[in-house]
Amino acid sequence: MIIIITVAFQRRSHSKDRQFKKLEGKMERFEMDVKTECKRAFTELQTDMSDLTKDMQGSGIPFQQFNNYAVNMMFAGQTDHPIFDKNIKTPSGSLARGLEEFYALLANKDFCLVFIRTLEEQKMMTTKDKVNVGSLLTITLHRERKMMHLTDVLKVLLAEAAEEAENDNRTKSMLRRTESIMEKLLTNWFLLSLYPFLKISAGESIYWLFKAMKYQIDKGPMDAFEGLAKYSLSDKYLLRENFDPKTITIEVITGEDGSSDKEAKVLDVDTVSQVKDKLLDVIYTNHAYSSRPSIQEIDLEWRGGTKGRGHITLKDHDVTTENEGQWRRLNTMKHYQIPDGAKMALVPRTESGPGELRTPITPPSDYDFIQFHNPDADEPVPVTSPPPTQRDVEEGTEEKVWHLIKVKPAERKKRNLRERALTRAKSMYRPERVISEIYLLQLVSTKGTIQEYVDRVFDALLIMYIPSYRTIMYL
Q1: Where would I find the beta strands (DSSP E) of 3-113?
Q2: Residue 211 burial (C-beta neighbours within 10 Å; 0-12, 13-18, 19+)
Q3: d(CA 330, CA 335)
Q4: What pLDDT score does 431 carry?
Q5: Where does 47-126 have alpha helices with state H?
Q6: Which residue, 238, 355, 360, is CA-closest to 299?
Q7: 8 A C-beta contact, residue 289 and residue 355
Q8: Most buried residue, 54, 164, 294, 328, by CB count within 10 Å?
Q9: pLDDT classification of 54: cutoffs 50, 70, 90
């Protein structure tokens, strides 16, 4: 009996030793993975933005003309507003005389105040109606060179609004929203007055910050369907998975003869839509976003194709798409085996015959990005709606679509992005996966890289060293 107990105790002791050694090995691998991620994050923190600086030098900033800037800001998101209709005829006859008399009445301060107060009291007018009236009044008075008149009217209206807010004990919420004609007039007055400040000082810093953020995010993998990125500024949208993508240099064809004078860097894990967006950034460098087509209006052609002949139209989904049961993966550059130095062209999405080459798109050559205020400038450019995301395109399909990570539709509805990422990272241990919190170092890397550009923006916005910009100082 004693011998049996002794043998059982020894076997149990050996079993615990084996479990301890196995756990110790896992902890050592964990420690090595953490060290590797820390070294990688530290290296990325030292990465500068020299490539971005090189691309931006000598290209200028794509400032909108004053007329386009004013109309786009006053009627943001309204593509169907009559002011964008190019077919409106110039009024004549009695209508023209009536408008002239109305302009003369608006030039009278008392009439203008009574007119605005009367409209504010109309219960049938919605917030959108009041905002539109405020913008139309601003355009009318600015067109008639009555900005000083508008300033005097705003002073009276602001004083009345402040007194009313004090009586109703809501001074803290005053001007928090733009729901009245007076508030929209004040907003428009600001955007008109600050245009020189944006053009001479702050606009350049803000544009550099935007380009730096986009450049940094595009350097790493980004899930086209879930919106998670390796170089994110928020842990909510942080890609908590290990990917080691390969950078591919694409020669962008811009000439009808097949010549290419531009290069774009993409990742082998990028989808076709992501590559389209990056090529558009290269082709339309420092052009207005409204001047470039959406990715749904163009196709991506690989000139040369496989074995160096023909051309292939690349798509997010085609007959070669990888299907795993109900899961359908978006096509990537790695899926198409795109080599380094491949030649590609963005072409209009039109019906073409077999083997027929379509002309590559090119940016407008007559775009002037440094013109100053000109009352007789070109007609306003309509505000374009943002392109739909990959999820917007695929949401109506019954199949489960994925790019870099798989997320079940039920899980997508129940949890937000951060919770889903943490759930995946805290699942069963795999040697190639480290603890999820280690990926937070990527946030430090991204924020540290763009910190210089953030400082520039705050310096430009808060250091009011130009006397002409008293708009904010003396509000």
Answers
A1: none
A2: buried
A3: 9
A4: 42
A5: 50-56, 66-74, 94-106, 109-120
A6: 360
A7: no
A8: 328
A9: low
Question: Beta strand pairing status for 298-303 and 260-267?
Answer: unpaired
Long-range contacts of 34-43 (CB under 8 A, 24+ apart): 34/434, 34/435, 34/438, 37/434, 37/438, 37/439, 37/441, 38/438, 38/441, 41/441, 41/442, 41/444, 41/445
Name the residue among 66, 142, 143, 71 with its Cα closest to residue 372: 66
With the C-alpha atoms ordered 305, 311, 317, 321, is the resulting torsion angle positive or negative? negative
User: Is residue 401 within 8 Å of residue 331, measured between CB atoms?
Assistant: no
Which positions ≥6 away from 425 have C-beta within 8 Å? 240, 433, 435, 436, 439
Give the model's pLDDT for residue 448.
Answer: 80
> Nearest CA to 118 among 104, 130, 128, 107?
130
Cα dihedral: 94, 97, 98, 101 (round 10): -160
The enclosing H or E element of 390 equals helix 390-394
Q: How many residues does the chain have?
A: 475
pLDDT in tens, 156-209: 998 888 888 888 887 777 877 788 888 889 888 888 888 888 888 788 888 889
User: What is the spatial distance between Cα 79 and Cα 385, in angstroms, rounded to a whole number?
Assistant: 8
Q: What letter does residue 198 receive in the DSSP assignment?
A: I
For 265, half-sphere exposure in the C-beta direction (CA atoms, 13 angstrom radius) is 13
Residue 357 structure tokens: 């080459």
Residue at token pair 């009367």: 118
The neighbour count for residue 336, using CB atoms within 10 Å, is 19
Q: Going by C-beta distance under 8 Å and a sequence separation of 6 or more, which residues neighbour residue 440? A: 235, 238
What's at 69, amino acid-wise? Answer: Y
